[in-house]
Design brief:
Layout: E1 7-8, H1 14-19, E2 22-25, H2 26-29, E3 43-46, E4 60-67, E5 73-78, H3 87-90, E6 93-96, E7 99-102, H4 112-122, H5 126-129, E8 132-135, E9 146-149, E10 152-156, E11 159-163
Antiparallel strand pairs: 1-3, 2-3, 2-4, 4-5, 4-8, 5-6, 6-7, 8-9, 10-11
Length: 164
């Protein structure tokens, strides 16, 4: 395979998903490729395989629509999971006015400053934002590609806490 476009997770923007609605993590798919040493676990490339992309084929980022509680539709992306409601795998991300926001914060949670920035850039009351829903267009990916987000999530041991 000819060296594809490579992008770091943090550098992906909405136009990347307009051009290529499905991206795959290079470290889950390209171990035999000559450019593999130029990548790390944060490097993605456009998916060139068949659709729908399946979670068993690697770690994907798939364009998604994020709908706020008030019905506002925003662009974003999600990772297909094997199980419904697995937000730790799906990790939906939303683009708002040139900024990207995620809701899964792992064991440390999403910092208060990032949560406040999200509310500020939206300029909406909490009731107009959560719960938000996300979904992938039919045919792009298999597995769990829809879900609901009630706030920002933090993992505390084996318990998931929601923060707003």
């Amino acid at each position: 395979m000819k060296k594809p476009e490579l992008k770091q997770f943090g550098d992906l923007v909405p136009s990347d998903f307009d051009r290529h609605p499905v991206w795959i993590g290079c470290h889950t798919a390209d171990t035999e490729e000559p450019w593999y040493d130029e990548t790390d676990e944060e490097t993605f490339r456009p998916w060139s395989g068949p659709l729908p992309a399946r979670p068993s084929d690697g770690m994907f980022l798939v364009t998604a629509t994020i709908n706020l509680a008030d019905g506002t539709a925003l662009p974003g992306f999600v990772t297909p999971a094997f199980d419904e409601g697995d937000l730790g795998t799906q990790q939906p991300q939303v683009f708002v006015r040139g900024r990207r926001f995620g809701f899964w914060g792992g064991t440390s949670g999403v910092p208060l400053a990032k949560r406040q920035a999200f509310y500020e850039v939206l300029g909406k009351p909490l009731a107009a934002i959560f719960p938000l829903r996300f979904g992938v267009a039919p045919g792009l990916a298999a597995g769990a590609v829809t879900g609901q987000v009630a706030g920002f999530y933090r993992l505390d041991g084996d318990k998931v806490e929601t923060q707003v």
